[in-house]
Amino acid sequence: MKLFEIAEFKLVNTIHLFTYIRSLQTFTAKFRSLFMLIWMSFSFLLMEGCQTSQSEVVTTFQDVVMTVQYRILVGNSVSEVDKIRIQTIIDSTFEEIDTIYNKWNPQSEISRLNSLKAYQTIPLSPQLFQLFKQIDALVILSEGLFDPTIEPLQKLWKKKLNSQQLPSPDEIALIKPSIGWDKIHFEKGLFFKENSLTELDLGGIAKGFAIDLLISRLNEAGFPNLYVEWGGDIRTSGRHPAKRPWNIYISHLDSTDPKDAIAFLSLNNQAIATSGDYFQYWTVISNNELQTYCHIFNPLTLSPLKIRTGSIASASLVANDCLTADALAKVMML
Questions:
Q1: Going by C-beta distance under 8 Å and a sequence separation of 6 or more, which residues neighbour residue 3?
Q2: CATH code of residue 246
Q3: What are 32-66's pLDDT values in tens digits?
Q4: Number of domain units in the chain
Q5: Residue 220 forms part of a structural domain
Q6: Whole-number Å distance between alpha carbons of 199 and 159
Q7: 204 is in an annotated binding site
């Protein structure tokens, strides 16, 4: 009997969803994280085991930024001067992500917005203004299930869950008025919020957004053939040196061997992101019942996703851009 089933659905345009259904009789830590997205290019793994011709050279850039590893493959050989250019683009892009969008950086623009009082107005940077317009579309597309204003909700629940408790109805009621993208205003590049408690968390799209920026900027610099991965999110551009799309596979977490792969995918100028209930979780006893919650929050129910037998354990979503894939993969878990 199969423990999990895989399904593919067409959502909008070229967006595809791969889901993994949890069908274990009991939930244990041993089986919590059976699936993950393997970020390493399968085609690249095959090339390592054979002789590579000059026409199939892949130049690799990798490092760790903001505690998360990135890996960028350029689908052709590059000069030493070009390597410096590419690394400069990579470094400057990640620096921008940190100084504008990172809530953990107290000096970032998003941290300054979170510290504002109700109706206190501040001009937005052009970069954040453009991102907010993209968020507008995602909030509408997801019917409110994607909403960056969940930060107060996350803070409350995580504080309680870390103490083996659940928030009280009064505590939920206190922060409820601060949740909702409609509490945010940024007309003509001027930002204000209706509630002082409202705070933004862009972590749900930061990786995908950064990858999109890297693809765009490296393309503009004259590098059309790219594979960009940061923390499990992937986007490709152009072709592999073997004159075909970039190939990846989705595998059991317990085995990175390609023979155990659940699915093989060719990404043709596309992106893929994965969300799962196994990255962070808490187990508490409530009403004499053992309950397990994960780090994915529903802004409509004001609660984190509860892990149950028969629920979706992981969702991998393919889209034309990584921002969309990143946001909607999490939505699909809800």
A1: 23, 24, 31, 34
A2: 3.10.520.10
A3: 333 333 333 332 232 322 334 445 689 999 999 99
A4: 1
A5: yes
A6: 16
A7: yes
